[in-house]
Amino acid sequence: MSSVKVFNTSGKRKKATAKATIKAGSGVVKVNDRLANCYEPRLARLKLMEPLSIAGSHASGVDIRVRVRGGGTFSQAEAARLAIARALVAFTKDKKLEKDFLDYDRHMLVADVRQREPRKPNTAGKARSKTQKSYR
């Protein structure tokens, strides 16, 4: 039985959850079974590719597969970005890469825990408990 180095990591943003699997390979990155280069919209794709561009040569020798569920388009992109960055750091065990990620953006490795405020009863779906009065 060969010992293949495989790491599983996860990332969350609002309601989106991403699970990344990384192993040695040829540099293929897939998000929900599609190549990351084909991810739409373009702004979300750029957000998703940030850890790969910062990692440089570390990212070219690994295959990454990301599964994202829940949330909106940009929440999914940020969750996938977090999972990819964590996977690269776990796979390479490189402190310099970890420092580069943290210096660029702390949310590359640390999850943003803010959530949507829950709606309040009798406010027609609004999050604030008191409704604004209009005396006109």
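The record above closes out task 2.4. Task 2.5 opens with a second protein, given below.
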Amino acid sequence: MKLDVKTLEAKAAGSVELSDAIFGLDPRTDILHRVVQWQLNKRQQGTHQAKTRAEVSRTTKKMYRQKGTGGARHGSRKPGLFVGGGKAFGPRFRSHETALNKKVRALGLKHALSTKVKASELIIVDKAELAEAKTKSVKAALDKLGLVNALIIDGAALNEGFAKAARNIPNIDVLPIQGINVYDILRRKNLVLTKAAVEALEARFK
């Protein structure tokens, strides 16, 4: 398929041929869901932990005699029944990461790209850089393209000035091609790829 290429000033800059094997698939929500869930599980810290009765510092002396008090039978003050006692079945330090095959991950990325093409939310620009690397200039350029919520993907090396200037704009993310991922593509309304990013994607899935 063919898509028009624009400059950041919203001027025509030719066209580019996109591979149907990457950008022309019929999106499957089940695959997208699996990949997004895998990403979110992987980044979850899992550092929350409650102390069990074996870890709390309380006396282990029997609270009172076994019989004749009219109360329940108790020994140590460590059970979760008492204030300051250990937590039964509380959260433990662990990894929340799940496994997902590389082929499914790659397929998920293709489906995410195809989703943007199908929704007419993919924009190709010749390059992501401006002569004046200031937030005001980048904001004006994005306004010309009608972008208020977008993910911009450049080649292997980002233009440092453009990336720093765009960092101050809400709902605009700039990533190198190595950082492209399904979750970030889907969480932003528009996807902006440079010609270098398109070439890198096609080389990656060749």
